[in-house]
Amino acid sequence: MAFGAFDPLHEGHIDFLRQAKALGDHLTVVVAHDSAIAAHKHRDAKQSEEERMNAIRVLPFVDEVILGRKTAHKYHIFDEVQFDIIAMGYNQLPSDEEVLDALHERGKYDVKVVRLNPFQPEQYPS
């Protein structure tokens, strides 16, 4: 599983999702709700959630695209989706420790958190 705003989707995101798919057989991508972007980035989304979801949905290595909730609670998806691995961008927040704590609070001790390699970070920082 991978998650992010993908606002807008760029080559760095595409590489991130390719790396995530290489970790397993099924890639679920959770796209941040417009209201979550406003809450976390303190700005409106550049593209609507539907536009961002459609851009990811057409990628041949993505199996499923889910819209995150309107709330800023970032861990709701841990209770709603089955997964074995969480792929995180090289500079993506939150920290691995915070994610692991949230997983352990839900009894998910076997889920791996994997930090992926950057792709031209000077051009695509997030």
UniProtKB/TrEMBL annotation:
Pfam families for the chain: CTP_transf_like (PF01467)
A GO molecular-function annotation: nucleotidyltransferase activity
Keywords: Nucleotidyltransferase, Transferase
Gene3D superfamilies: HUPs (3.40.50.620)
Domain of life assignment: Bacteria
Residue ranges annotated for the Cytidyltransferase-like domain, each copy included: 2-113
Protein name per the record: Cytidyltransferase-like domain-containing protein
Organism: Candidatus Andersenbacteria bacterium RIFCSPHIGHO2_12_FULL_45_11b
